[in-house]
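Many introductory courses stop at the sequence. We go one step further.
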Amino acid sequence: MLDLLGLPDSDENMMRHWSDRCSNFLFQPVAPDKEAMAKEQREILDAQQAYFMPLIEARRRAPGEDMISARHARKWPANAYPISKYLPPAT
């Protein structure tokens, strides 16, 4: 997956952690601590946004041979599909 997105191998543990924690949200115990779960979800989303936003902007300016670049290689007007439309605001 890292290769497809053009991400460094050194980020594998971070990506695996995010993936594992997000999948765990689907399989919570019978009575999960909803406040703790919501806090962790927000922290992960904020961390992902902080990681991916600069990367996406860099790939828009200088595309590579990866899926992120391919997604943004289309010739759309600059603000036709702002990335902020798809991400929750950072806290």
